[in-house]
Amino acid sequence: MEPLEAGTTELGYGFKENSYTVAITVHYGMMSANFNRFNNVEIKYVRVAGGDGTNQSGTATYTPAIAGVVGRHQLNLAAGTWTLTFSKKGYLDFVITDFTINDDGTVTTQVDGSEKATFIVTDAGSGKSYIDFGNIGSANDNTDRYVVAPVLGDADYDNLAVSLGDIAQVSNAMVAGAGTGSIAHADIDETLLANTAATNAGLTDDMSYVLKSFGKGVTKMRYDQFLNSASYKVGGTSSGFGS
Fold this sequence. Notes:
The chain is α+β, with helices and mostly antiparallel strands. The chain contains four helices and 15 strands. The strands form five sheets. It has a five-stranded mixed β-sheet.
């Protein structure tokens, strides 16, 4: 796979080494298809080993441009082993460790006892290639694709296990006379029209997501565990996928 040349990318990453484009699909659970008041998505990336040995880390911030439950984000990462942390208000962090890009831009992982390669897609128009994170199929489809799916239910934004505090956050916003700021904060599925929403009638669903996720905490796993988990496979039986 041809790397991006060393330098500063359009997203502002500065690398002394060549880097590779990684495309990542993230499932956000219950984003509304009607409105566009969405909290930003942050992906923190830290290289823990490999490459030229220099410390490389940073945060990429994305503003969802369209409604929908799936986000497609790109990072430019040099060779080495990385820890990636996906963060969004209302969701608990999803952390993947031990994501290793080889010097030639390939990614190989043990899956079900055998070595599998993460699929590399070549864009027909530009001819540029990218690593399709979580896709170990033989083509750019959903045959064998795994999707990052943070838990929805962190209504108090503390990034701890979903608990009574999250229930209280939504409950307080559901009472008569609740302020618009309180209502907007509790709107973890982002279905209200704006931060100045005058009604809290739509928060019943938010409470149901908190109750469904009660007791769940931050997700953290190695990349090989991610690719061995039916919970995150497209079309699988997960109660994850954002909830």
